[in-house]
Design goal:
single chain; alpha/beta; Arc Repressor Mutant, subunit A; Rossmann fold; 2 domains; six-stranded mixed sheet; two-stranded antiparallel sheet; 17 helices; 49% helix
């Protein structure tokens, strides 16, 4: 830990053409972002609610930014029967799915994925759409062939079945979501909220995503970067927690060097006992907890200020720009400078 603390101081294949894909992504940023929420028989009402809530146009006025234009779409005429027995008549069809910038595929209790869904997903993806599945919606993406050769996740109880049925897919059961760029998949149920907030964070930045999370009364971020790789999200510590005072102090002194010995002293424990109990209480080590908090400070500073990287590193507690680049790259999978340029490009658009 001391060393760690020191370190902290029509099925075209257009998607195979990088230039064409880049051009379409740029075009999307300069017009209203269309979201198609795909429903079919057996679709789950819970994930439908998540998608409609996060991408609903009412957030434009509340958050003060132009928001997504979302449409609930079905590929066949007539009502769709949801898992709870409710019937829904979608106002939009397959044409809106194919033209959407982001396509959200809901899970379904149906045994088979309709062929029309697979066709629409392939066409949308080939035209440059970002295709997203919530929970077991990953089976629809796999049936369409979109997950072949990719990493993906779904509800942990269904990961084994997904891997057996689609051996070309690398299934990861230990994460909340997987971001493969133009294809994203989430784990079960509430992990859909994590993935949707992640998409908002990509499109609008950390501050807007955090505001939205507060409105939804959920944790603003349960992720380690642009993709979720943690096996157990860290819980919030309430005032009764053994480490509440220590965590509060840490959050106020993130830019200062710290060791386990110092934290143990503040908590009136031996270093070994402190490290063991902190892990049991939070699901992570003191070093990893502190690293995540400092990465979030660095991201906010890169997004909202023009501070040089050296200054960002110092303010976030990384001491040097080299340390910041090392940890930022491992966690966010890009450099601080590229992250800043990408975010500023989104803001400008």
């Amino acid at each position: 830990m001391q060393n760690d603390a020191a370190n902290l101081a029509a099925d075209g294949r257009d998607d195979l053409n990088p230039a064409l894909a880049t051009g379409r992504a740029t075009a999307r940023r300069h017009r209203e972002h269309a979201v198609a929420i795909v429903v079919y028989d057996g679709a789950t009402a819970f994930e439908l609610g998540i998608a409609c809530e996060v991408f609903g146009s009412h957030w434009s006025e509340i958050l003060g930014v132009p928001w997504y234009r979302s449409r609930v779409c079905a590929v066949t005429p007539g009502p769709v029967t949801l898992d709870a027995g409710l019937q829904l008549r979608a106002a939009y069809g397959a044409a809106h799915i194919v033209r959407a910038d982001t396509v959200i595929v809901l899970p379904s209790v149906a045994a088979e994925v309709p062929a029309e869904i697979c066709t629409a997903l392939r066409r949308a993806h080939s035209r440059g759409s970002r295709v997203v599945s919530l929970c077991t919606g990953a089976f629809a993406l796999a049936a369409a062939g979109l997950l072949d050769g990719r990493r993906a996740t779904t509800h942990w109880t269904e990961c084994g079945d997904l891997a057996r049925r689609y051996p070309k897919v690398t299934v990861d059961p230990g994460v909340l979501f997987v971001d493969e760029g133009d294809i994203c998949t989430s784990a079960g149920s509430a992990a859909g909220i994590d993935l949707c907030l992640h998409l908002v964070r990509q499109d609008y930045g950390t501050e807007v995503a955090t505001q939205l999370a507060r409105q939804l009364v959920v944790a603003p971020q349960r992720e380690g970067g642009q993709a979720q790789y943690i096996t157990a999200p860290m819980p919030e510590l309430d005032s009764s927690s053994l480490f509440a005072d220590t965590v509060t102090w840490l959050l106020e002194h993130l830019n200062e060097p710290v060791t386990v010995e110092e934290l143990a002293t503040r908590s009136a424990m031996s270093p070994r006992t402190f490290a063991r109990r902190f892990l049991a209480s939070t699901g992570t080590t003191p070093y990893q907890w502190l690293l995540r908090q400092r990465i979030q400070v660095a991201r906010r500073l890169l997004e909202t200020t023009d501070l040089p990287v050296d200054a960002v590193a110092a303010a976030a507690g990384f001491s040097t720009a080299a340390n910041l680049r090392k940890h930022f790259g491992r966690t966010v999978h890009t450099s601080p400078q590229f992250y800043r340029r990408t975010f500023q490009a989104r803001q400008a658009s």
